[in-house]
Amino acid sequence: MAAESSSNSSTNLRIVVQNNPSDSQLSELGIKSWPKWGCPPGKYQLKFDEQETCYLVRGKVKVKSKNSSEVVEFGAGDLVILPKGLSCTWDVSVAVDKHYKFDTSSSPSSS
């Protein structure tokens, strides 16, 4: 019997970074209609209560999860998925502007 890892396990909260997604992919996702958020350089303690997908218009960030020693870097032009339940520190070296949306996968689609 194979054991399956639980998606709620805090040790499996992986940040997914896609470098330079195509314009057609960004258009398909509707990035430009997503809300925007920005912050100046500095360190920020963040907790993600929902999965967030974001696209960085500008900026440079190093993210360190509280539950791991892994550091993930991303910046302008990257599409990033931050998992639900992630507690982390954002070390912002270049001011961030990003489009973002929260994925509430438990909600049924209304289309």
Automatic annotation (TrEMBL):
Residues 26-100 form the (S)-ureidoglycine aminohydrolase cupin domain. The lineage of its organism: Eukaryota, Viridiplantae, Streptophyta, Embryophyta, Tracheophyta. This is (S)-ureidoglycine aminohydrolase cupin domain-containing protein. InterPro entries: RmlC-like_jellyroll, RmlC_Cupin_sf, UGlyAH_Cupin_dom.
